[in-house]
Every structure is written in structure tokens, then in C-alpha cells.
Amino acid sequence: MPANHSVQSRLGAYRRALSGRDFRLLWLGSSLSLVGDGMTFVALTWLVLSQPGGTGRLGLLTVCYTLPVFVGGLIAGPVLDRFDKRHVLAVDSVVRGAAMASIPIAAAVGEVPAVLPFVVAGVYGLFKMVPLAGFPSAIPDLVEPEDLDAANALESLAFSLAGMVGPALGGLLIAGLGSEAVLAFDALSYAVFALTALAVRRPLAPDSPSVPANTAGPPPADERRTGGDAHGPGVRLRIGTLLRDRVLVGTTLAFMAFNVAAGMLLVVGPWLAKTQLAGGAQTLGVLLAALSAGELAGAAAAGAWTPRSRPVRTIALVQLVAATGFLLVFTSPHTIGVAAGFLVIGLFSAPMTVWAQSLRMARIPAPLRGRGFSILRTLMQATPPIGAALVTPLLGSGRLGTAAIAMALIAALPAVLLLADRRS
Description:
By secondary structure, this protein is an all-alpha fold. It has one domain (18-198, 237-420): Growth Hormone, Chain: A (Up-down Bundle). It is 79% helix and 0% strand. It has helices spanning 2-19, 21-49, 54-66, 68-82, 85-109, 116-127, 129-142, 148-177, 179-199, 221-224, 233-243, 246-275, 281-304, 311-324, 335-363, 369-381, 384-396, 400-420. Helix 12 (246-275) packs parallel to helix 17 (384-396). The two termini are 32 Å apart. Mean pLDDT is 80; it is low at 1-5 and 209-237.
């Protein structure tokens, strides 16, 4: 039957992507590092919540975790386009691994300074865009063109699975071993990622032919049209062209707004676990795991089915449905209802990421991938601090209902505007 053939074809694309040694290595190393990061967010938030004035300091931690992404993203793009991405990813892993290790080391020799979690969060945010832009910009060089959707879905699946396992495991380990042990594991995961990046055989430098690893022949037409030097005037012109692309700009603005609501949720979730729901750190792990479980299922579905007509409209529809999940915060103090909201948000936000990333890969020329993905993802990742700053005073005054409505409206409005645009 045609439906069965379609599913088998998509599963075959997953197998082909993972059969490539270099893509498999980079994907596995990235996935393990993401598990460590999922554990780390729980560990850092619990360290801060355990200090005096924890609720107010939690908002500051979220800002430190996310605000430096904007500065780091502006730097990461040019670096990724100028140097071999394998080496850039390895250096990033070493730096952030050392930052994570500083807290367990400080705990082992004495006492963790109150400011250190905020410094570590800042370092994490500053370098966060390196793998977020580096891995997707390397994907077209590591898989066949027809397997790009599957490879993008695998990246999203890794985020979702790691986000599901990491927070839940982190919550359990904090109860038994403490936050410092969790951060030590994250430092180790960074070391593994650095080794896997260096073990990739295919050069990922900008002057390498931009063709899939298993093919030969001249560079694709879009690369030949860029005018030669990846750092010359033609590239600068095309950066401006990308920013004038209606599809790229429209979807990016929609994601930026959705991430404002997501930034609010990063504060609301720990606050609920600490003050409204039973279970403490383990409940926080459950909420974050529910979010990631939804993302896992949503990414798997997005990889199995890709909208071929009017993809922007389809992206807007799933964003609108995802926005309804924020309203389930109203079910507090019932953990099941709140967790269901987190699940809905993840389930319908993951396809947005997969399908939009495929759109970007089709529209960004090869020599601009580092800067293109860095600029767009930086813009999207820079907005959660706005949400964190907005929601902190609401929670401080106990206005959880106002926070829930604000999150839903902020997430839904850009989707409504995209749907109203007849060109989408």
C-alpha cells in the first residue's frame, strides 16, 4: 500500500543517515552531551532554589542561561564558516565542560560560591549556539540530500530524548548524590562529545566540497552561484538577502515569540515544583521529561511525514495547537494536569523545528550555513530571557493565572498572523 511504502521509505532514510560513520559519531556525541545538559538545568536551578531568595534568583539564573546566547551567536556563525566545524565543536565542548566541572571541584575543596552557578550558566549560554548552529550546518555535508529530513528529525529526536531522560535522571541523582555529581557527569559528557567530533574523518571546513559524504562530483549549483570566497562581498550580500527572505523572517519571528513563552515556562516549571506541586526536584524532572516526551513523539511524526505544500501554514497550525498547552498550568496543584500541558507543548512544537529547519537548509547557500543558522537560531534563542524577566514578578506576586494566559497568547499570536497571511 502507498502509506506503508511511505513509512518504509522514511525508515529507510533514518537507516541511511545513521549508516554514515561520521554523521553517526557526531549525532551520538551530541546526544550524550544533550543528556548531560538536561540534567544540568535541573541541578543549577535546584542549587539556586536552595539559596535564600531562591525565586527571584531563579529568574536571574534563567536570564544568565539564555541572554548570552545572543552575543555568542553573533560570534559563532563567522567562526563556524571560517574554521573546520569539527575543531570548533571540540573546543566548545572543552570550554563548557571545564565550566561545569568547576562546581563539583569547588564543592570537593570547600564550598561552592553563591555566584558560581550564575557564572556557569553564563558560560553555557555564551557557547550554546556553537553546537546549535554547528551540527545542523554540518548535516548537509554528512548525509545524502534525500535524507536531510530524516537527519533533521534525528537531531530533534536527540534533543527530545535527551530532554526527557536528562531532567528525570537529574532529579533522581540530585536526591541521592547531590547537584554537584550531576554537573560532574555533564562535564564528562562534554569530553565525549569533543572526542567524537575529532574522530569525524570528513573535513567540515568551508573550503571543502559541499557534497554529501558518499557522493562525488562538482559542488551543487547553489554553491557555485555564491561567487567563490566564502568570506567575500558576495557572501555579505547574501546574508542581507537571507534576512529579506519572507519565509525565513516569518517563521523566525513566530519562533521568537513562541520562545518568549518557553522562557516563561522555564521559570514557571521550577516554581511550581518548589511551591505548588508535591515531589520537589523529582516533580521538576517529571515536568521537563513530559515536555521532552512530547517533543520526542512530535519529532518522530515530523520525520515520517513532511508537508509538501504550504509548509509555513502547517507550521503555524501546529504552533497554534502547542500554545494551548500553556493553559493547562491552570490545573495546578494537580501534577498530572500540569504535566499534560508540558506534553502538549512538546508534542506540537517539535514538528515546527523539524519542518522549519528543512526549509532553511533549502534556502541557505552552503558557504553561509554557519552564519545563516547562527543568525536565525540566535534570534530565536535570544528571546527566552524576555519571558523569564516578564514572568518572575508575576510569580512573585502569586499571579499564576495571569502568567498562564500571557504564555498562551504570546505563543499563539504569531501563528494566527501566519495563518491570516494568504501567501503562507
